[in-house]
Amino acid sequence: MRPRTERARARQGGFTLIEALASLAICSVIILATVTLIHQVARNFDRGTRGVDAADGLMLAVTRLAADFGSARFVVWETEAGPAVAFRAEPAGGAAPARITFVGARDTGDGSPVDEVISLTVERADNVTRLVRRRAAWTGSGMPAGRLSPQDPVVLLEGNLDIAFAFGRLANGGALAWSTTWTDATTLPRFVRLLLRERATGTDPLGEADFIVRADAPLACGRPEAGPDCLSRALPAVKRRAAPERTPG
């Protein structure tokens, strides 16, 4: 009787192999569930962080565009078709991207703005579309519009997006008429609208964003004796720079 009692006590004091395997299986399930939960929390947190970053980037781009279009200047430059207001919006064609070019003002920090040429291009590569801002020094109306080469590229928007602009002007009766181009015009557009669409969902992450072009009339319209005809007067001729004289060799 004694040996049997000792074996029974030995069984009560430890685990059998089956019990040990069962406990390991339960621990594995708990560890797997914990890892999955941590992974989901981290993924959702990362997704939320990316969403906040995208929203911040969109707001920064809108702020930059509002400042640029709001500072547009009513100045004249020389084009192939003759004098025109220095504001040109061209659609994409061939390898050339859609482009908006105009003269705006840049704050130098000391309260004295400096005019510069601003270029906005919609560039596509694979499934990524970028709205890129460039700039160049504005040297005056004698600067040929067709020879501009803006530098210092800054990506304002980037993603799987369709990016486009529309330009509004006041039509007869005070209604707004919109167009997708603005070339060789004698006036500036009254509004510029940014249009965004996510290709994956077809939604607009921004809604209608309209930017006001404040300098929509030439300086002559600000004179006390100016009348409504100041808006329809012919543009002044652009003064061409004299070519440097060549000394005979």
Descriptive account of the structure:
With 249 residues, the protein is of the alpha+beta class. It has one domain (55-231). The protein contains two helices and eleven strands. It has helices spanning 2-12, 17-70, and strands at residues 76-79, 82-85, 87-90, 98-106, 114-125, 128-137, 151-159, 161-170, 176-179, 191-198, 209-212. A five-stranded antiparallel sheet has the order 3-4-5-6-7, covered by helices on one side. The protein has a four-stranded antiparallel sheet with strand order 9-8-10-11, covered by helices on one side. The longest helix has 54 residues, at 17-70.
What attributes does this structure have?
249 residues; five-stranded antiparallel sheet; 2 helices; 31% strand
Percent range for helical residues?
A: 25-40%
Q: If strands are numbered along the chain, what order do they take across the biggest sheet?
A: 3-4-5-6-7
- Compute the number of structural domains: 1
- For this structure, the quaternary state is single chain
The proportion of strand residues reads 25-35%
Q: What's the helix count?
A: 2
Q: What does the average pLDDT come to?
A: 76
Order of helices and strands: HHEEEEEEEEEEE
Gap between N and C termini, in Å? Answer: 130 Å
Q: Count every beta strand, where a strand is a DSSP E run of 2 or more residues.
A: 11
Topology, please?
Blueprint: H1 2-12, H2 17-70, E1 76-79, E2 82-85, E3 87-90, E4 98-106, E5 114-125, E6 128-137, E7 151-159, E8 161-170, E9 176-179, E10 191-198, E11 209-212
Antiparallel strand pairs: 1-2, 3-4, 4-5, 5-6, 6-7, 8-9, 8-10, 10-11
